[in-house]
Amino acid sequence: MKSERVFITGCGGMLGSAIYPFFASRYEDVLASDRIVNEKWLVRLDVRDDDHLARMFKEYRPDIVLHLAAETNLEYCETHPEITIATNAVATRNIAKLSEEYGAMLIYISTAGVFDGKKSGFYTEEDQPNPIMVYGRTKYEGELYALEHCSRTFVVRAGWMMGGGRDKEKKFIFKILEQVAQGKKEIFAVNDKWGTPTYTYDFAMNLFRLMETEKYGTYHMVCEGEGSRYDVAEEILKICGISDIDLVPVGSGYFEKEYFAPRPRSEIMSNANLGKHGINFMRPWRESLSDYIKNYFFDFMRQPGLHQKERRKHRREDCGIPVTYSIKGEAGNILYSGILIDKCVSGAGIITGTALQAGQIIVFRDKEGTLTPDAGREHSLCAENSFRVGLESLNAGHFSAVKVLQVKTKDFFQDNEVEIRRLNTIPGMLL
To answer: Which CATH class is domain 2-300?
Structure first.
């Protein structure tokens, strides 16, 4: 575990739900804040409150500052420009100055919305921003303030965010799945705006690797590839195995009453600077999207032989519970710490506190490490078996359950013993 103190702003949203557990499993001291406290591990902070912000820095004295807080609703930004400037620009300037004063590294999360969308092809970090809406302008101002006032700054631009699970996912993917749940037979999706999706969990992993380089500056951090909103919607239906919904391509004018803020024609970005340093670990967006839906929206998937009522058991509950597990190795039974980030009746998502090696076996039992008692009892889990376990390590790949040692209750986190083995490939966590 690293000893630096990590301070996170705006940690109660989609990105924060991935950032916090990842960093909490790697740093001994993490203080996460947000204007709205919707998690037990959050403290309240409105970054526009200069005095409160200054007190937080003075009392906590952070070594690393991850500045996620922002007004991100484009329509709200257009109709409330003063609030948006105060949140996205002025607060960022203050945080940058305080970070410099206390000698902290600053990571400022920005957006593809700083570009005007006129370029044909992928935007790189060398392209000059020219935002066309209030949100983009204030985020770009924040970039300039961060780089000007803090000498140890990473400006990291993300694309179309996806992540956060049921409670935090409020963007395009949620809107499509919501219509599926409502039984809609026709869904309309825009096909004249292009961008690059960004999976929050991949983003958290790659951000950690970037920070370790201390090569400060501006970076793009998006999934590989590009597509329109229509392309994303089409892929969602494909992943879910849904063929009886008519997906209708429309121009952006179709939704102009609801989404009236100007939007760039193209927000397609490439991770050029990450590539230069050999640390571009962002996966293709279709692969990340599949991983996301299969783990957080499993009950939307239509699989032969699996009844809808049974699949609804897999609804996940987000959490941030410290857990322990053990690894059988040369030193015997060694306990390690991790963070349980979500759980359901039949599975879990866990971020491990240490990287695992291919071939290692770990055994997890309710907040307590244990070794496997009988290697001869191994059996595979098949598609129709409702007992499934997913274990993810964002810095070491994905894991698959290969053995259910004992099942006493409906919830895996009461009295059950499950052995987890690391996969050599990264196809996703769905078994």
So the answer is: alpha beta
